[in-house]
Amino acid sequence: MSDNPLPSLRRSPTRRLYLIGAIFLVVALLIALIGITSRSKHEHKLEEGVKSKHITVQVITPEYGPSIQPLILPGNVRANIEAPIYARVAGYLKIWHTDIGAHVKKGQLLGEIDTPELDQQIVRERANLLVAQSNLDLANITSKRWQNLVVSNSVSRQESDEKSADAKAKNDFLNSVRAQLNNLLAQQSFNHITAPFDGVITERNTDIGKLINPGSNNGQSLFQIADSRQLRIYVDVPQNYSADIKKGMTAELHFPEHPSQVFPATLVSTSQAIHESSRTLTAQLQMQNTDEEILPGTYAEVHFSLPSKGNVFRLPASTLLFRKEGLQVATVTTDNHVDLKFITLGRDLGSAVEVTSGISSKDRVIDSPSDSIAQGSVVRIKSAENVPVIVDSSEPP
Fold first, then answer.
1. Which tens digits make up the pLDDT trace of 216-228?
2. Which residues contact 272 (CB under 8 A, 6 or more apart)?
3. Geometric angle at alpha carbon 39, from 37 and 44, rounded to 5°
4. pLDDT band at 37 (very low <50, low <70, confident <90, very high)
5. Which of 95, 299, 341, 353 is the most buried (most CB within 10 A)?
């Protein structure tokens, strides 16, 4: 009997062991691979979760302002000389000779007032003047006669002095009546309304037959006259810019009715005081208007070019943090942590502010930071590149 099957039987258990071991090894490798993959996914999710908790911010880089600061303000245009014309005497309007828009010369007749009551007073005073003159003539004759009688001792000196005093009193009364008559005649001359200077009639507030009361406290003016060959423009300058407004500086005027034209003007004076109610400085400019192209009473845009202060940064107003500790901005460090910095403001330009100290040109300033942002907070920058600050501060707040 052959012995060959015996080795085969001996090798069979060994192979089985190798096979089982290989299977266990493969299973172990699969389990390890699954564990590593699961852990990697878990770590990735954890990292994403941590990142999602970081605040995403937009940063800007501070920049210096331009060398010239444009400033646009509203202005009110008025004639260089303008005046309301009131009546100086009571009566009724007899006739008017000029209407609105009429160009008149100084002394030109604008209207006439009928003054019946005043005319009667003048007639009465003239009669009183004649009576006073007659009484004076008689008193003078009597005084001279009594003086001659004193020489012959026909009358006493006392009686002569009394006649002289009576003549003097009647002379004084005559002068009083004459002065009253002259006053009435002067009032009567005011029934002719004349232009006080060359100009244009801008208003006529009366008509024929209308009752006229003298003075400015008793009604409307009869006429309004303006000399618009030169114009005055009044501008209220915010306190922030008041130090830059100087006498002699020039400005450009823009009018909505002349959109393609620019008119030069010169600053001639300021109020030299800040109005408490508005915190503004009133500035007065003048412009030539020989052709009377610009009408008084219109609205103007006044464009100033002001020098900017050197070494002053500008930031959008949205970067500011108003804290009880003081005014701050939030900056981002190189390792993406928040660094709160105290700043000092210059002028408030409306949508932007000037910063005189507290930041540098290398800082990355967070725009629109949340109120809860704190020192040392970790943030993520929205863009890889810093966004330069772009502000338009041509108009004041």
1. 776 689 999 999 9
2. none
3. 95
4. low
5. 353
Residue 78 CA: distances (Å) to CA of 81, 280, 290: 8, 19, 14
H or E stretch covering 114: strand 109-114
| Residue 137 vs residues 10, 143, 175, 370: alpha-carbon distances, Å | 183, 10, 13, 103
Parse the chain into domains and list their residue ranges: 22-53, 56-65+311-388, 227-307
Instruction: State how far the Cα of 208 lies from the Cα of 93, in Å rounded to an integer.
Output: 5
Q: What is the dotted CATH code of the domain comprising 56-65+311-388?
A: 2.40.420.20
Q: Going by DSSP bridges, is the β-strand pair 109-114/192-194 parallel, antiparallel, or unpaired?
A: antiparallel
- Placement of tokens 């290989």 in the chain: 22
Measure Cα distances from 278 to 32, 162, 274, 348 in Å: 78, 73, 8, 16
Instruction: State the Cα–Cα distance between residues 388 and 362, nearest whole angstrom.
Output: 11
**Percent of the chain's residues with pLDDT above 90:** 55
CATH number listed for the domain at residues 227-307: 2.40.30.170
Helices (H), 155-219: 157-189
Burial of 217 (0-12, 13-18, 19+ CB in 10 A): exposed
Whether pTM exceeds 0.70: no
Q: Specify the 3-state DSSP secondary structure of 120.
A: helix
